[in-house]
Design a protein that fits this description.
By secondary structure, this protein is α/β, with parallel strands linked by helices. Helices cover about 40% and strands about 15% of the residues. It has two domains: about 15-250, Aspartate Aminotransferase, domain 2 (3-Layer(aba) Sandwich); about 255-344, Aspartate Aminotransferase, domain 1, CATH 3.90.1150.10. It is built from 13 helices and eleven strands. The strands form two sheets. It has a seven-stranded mixed beta sheet, with helices on both faces. A four-stranded antiparallel beta sheet has the order 8-9-11-10, with helices on one face. α11 (about 255-270) runs parallel beside α13 (about 325-344). The longest helix has 20 residues, at about 255-270. The relative contact order is 0.17.
């Protein structure tokens, strides 16, 4: 078995309780394309969490959840405002632009979180036919920098968006980690805070695959089933996505997994801070740790515990923890890092 590294929570395996339920539903035949009892139950469970007026659609991956959710509420002449580090801007190979036709307008941030001040620079040209028309503000919770928006910060952005006639989209690939960090329920910082469309993620927190697109206004989802089909995200054997969500949400598995990964990131931060010459660059509020270390050490460390370089010029790296990261993983890596630093 490969040694657990700190590259990504996508690199982790599948939680045993998720694997178990996949086997349990792999019995006999059931109606395809989401007309199965597991999808009905999972949809109902998500509506219990987010509210009965929500519309829920299962898809395979986060890029599709983001892209199709944005596509549902935009025209090709619109623009989407996001942080410069946003996954939709950096890591989705131009899929949002390709499928929505929209222009992405990135905002420079220090911590991956949008502010009203940063958004304002793109809030012009309304009604001017030569200018892409702003339509959506997209935030990521937890952000790509491992930081977490407070409920108040989200509500402030939502109020501003709605005041200007825009919608608020949330990329919730690591929404479980954010919920644990805030100590709040999912609904508190989504529907109740004014979010309009949510990509609800499970893959990074113990699921094999599967995300849900959540619309908090049914009118926004009026033709989404067609978009999902055209977007090649209508799973024929949808029961295997939906059953995972049932296990994920049962007995708060999502919370246990996210709480553990957050604690492992906190432990990693605490231990790394004890090593002279290492600079932590972001608040550790979820399951990511960002640090600057001597560049010449990075390849040696990566050979033992693989991780990604975030900013090559600064020597900044990203260490991600997962639901299956152990204390031994953390201490083994810290010992290696301390030894390499002492040897310099």
């Amino acid at each position: 078995m490969n040694k657990r590294g700190f590259a990504s929570d996508n690199n982790s395996g599948v939680h045993p309780e998720i694997l178990k339920v996949i086997g349990e539903v792999n019995q006999g035949h059931t109606i395809a394309y989401g007309d199965d009892p597991y999808t009905e139950k999972a949809t109902q469970k998500l509506k219990e969490i987010f509210g009965p007026e929500t519309e829920i659609f299962m898809v395979f991956i986060g890029t599709a959840a983001n892209t199709l959710g944005l596509d549902a509420v935009t025209q090709s002449y619109n623009s989407i405002i996001c942080a410069e580090t946003a996954h939709i801007h950096v890591d989705e190979c131009g899929a949002p632009e390709k499928f929505t036709g929209c222009k992405l307008l990135p905002v420079e941030t220090a911590d991956g979180k949008l502010s009203i001040e940063g958004i304002k620079k793109h809030m012009h040209g309304f009604g001017f036919e030569h200018h892409a028309q702003p339509k959506v503000i997209s935030i990521t919770q937890a952000s790509e920098m491992g930081t977490v928006y407070t409920v108040e910060e989200i509500r402030k952005i939502a109020d501003y968006a709605h005041e200007k006639g825009l919608l608020l989209h949330m990329d919730g690939a690591r929404i479980s980690n954010a919920a644990v960090s805030l100590g709040r329920g999912f609904k508190d910082f989504t529907a109740d805070a004014g979010v309009d469309i949510l990509s609800f993620g499970g893959t990074k927190n113990g699921m094999m695959y599967g995300e849900a697109v959540v619309f908090f206004n049914k009118a926004l989802a009026s033709d989404f089933k067609y978009r999902r089909k055209q977007g090649m995200q209508l799973a024929s054997k949808m029961r295997f996505i939906s059953a995972q969500f049932l296990a994920f949400l049962k007995n708060d598995l999502w919370e246990r997994n996210a709480e553990h990964s957050n604690k492992m990131a906190e432990l990693l931060e605490q231990e790394v801070k004890k090593i002279p010459g290492i600079q932590i660059t972001q608040k550790v509020e979820a399951n990511g740790v960002f640090a600057i270390l001597p560049r010449e050490l990075i390849p040696e460390l990566q050979e033992e515990y693989f991780f990604y370089i975030w900013d090559e010029e600064r020597g900044e790296v990203r260490w991600m923890t997962s639901f299956d990261t152990t204390v031994e993983d953390i201490m083994g890596f810290v010992e290696l890092l301390r030894g390499r630093m002492d040897r310099r």
